[in-house]
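User: Predict the structure for this protein chain, please.
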Amino acid sequence: MTLRIFTEPQQGATYEQILAVARASEAYGFGAFFRSDHILSMGSATGLPEATDAWITLAGLARDTTRIRLGTLVSPITFRPVGSFPVVAAQVDHMSGGRLDLGLGAGWYQAEHDAFGMPFPAVSRRLHLLEDQLAILHGVWSTPPGQVFDFDGRSCSVHIHADTVRPLQEPHPPIILGGAGRPKSARLAATYAAEYNVSFVSAEAMQEVHDRVRRACEQQGRDPATMIWSAGQVVCCGRDEQEIARRAAAIGREVAELRENGLAGTPDEILQKLQQFVDHGAQRFYLQVLDLTDLEHLQLISEAVLPYAPGV
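Assistant: Here is the predicted structure, written as C-alpha cells:
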C-alpha cells in the first residue's frame, strides 16, 4: 500500500504553510502530496486566513519540490473552462518534471459557487461537463503527433493542435475519479481513469463501491487489475492517549468519533485499520491531514506507520 498525504487548505492555509507540509511529506518519504480544490471553507463564514487556488498551488509546488507526486482530490469540473483545461494540466506536469496526478469530479459544494459567482448547474449537466472534459483530456493527449484533435461534445466543441498541449508524462498524467460508483461514474472511470478513490467510508463500504466500478470495467472489456483502488480517511496519530487527544482537539474532533469514522489512535491501531482496508482491496491510501501546522504529526507517521504499512 502506498500512503499519500491529502490536505484541505480551504479551511485556512497560506501557500507557505501548504509548501511546508508538501516539503515535509517529500522529506519523510510519502508517495504524494494532494490538496482539495475548494476556495471556501466549510463550517466558517470567512475562510480565514486566506483562500488559495489549487492549480496555482500545484504550479508553485511543482517548482518548490523535487520528487513527490502532486495532485488534486478532486478538481470540480465547474471551476475551469472545459476546453482550455488541458493547457493548465499539461503545463503543471511539465513544471513538475512529470509528477502530476489529475483528480477530477463533478463538484458538489454549491455554497462556494454562490459565494464566488460561479454557475452551479444541475448534477446531470455537471456530469455532461465532466464527461466532455475527460473525453477532451484523453482524446487530445492520445492524438498522434502533428495532428489536430476535434471534438463535439454536449457542452462544447474544440479544435486543438495536440502538440501544443502535450504533458511530459507519456501517454499522459494518471486520471483519478471517485465517488459512490453509480452507473455514470463507474462507466466514466472504466473508460478514462487510472485510479478510483473512495474516501470517508468503512472498508466494507469502500469495497462495495469498488466492486461496482470493477463490474463496469468488465462490462467494457477492461481488466479491473489495470485500475488502482484507493481509499482515504482523516488521520490522527499519537504515541499515547494524551497526544491523540491533543491532535483531535486541534482539528475540532472527538477521539472516539475519529476512531470510529477515521484513522485514529496509536501507530499500531492505525496499522490495524489500514490492514482492514487492504483486506478489502485498497492498494493506495490518502491520509487526510487537517492541522497543517503540526509537522511532527507527519514525522511520527513516517517513522511509526509508513515503514510498516501493509503491502509496502
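The chain is about 40% helix and 20% strand.
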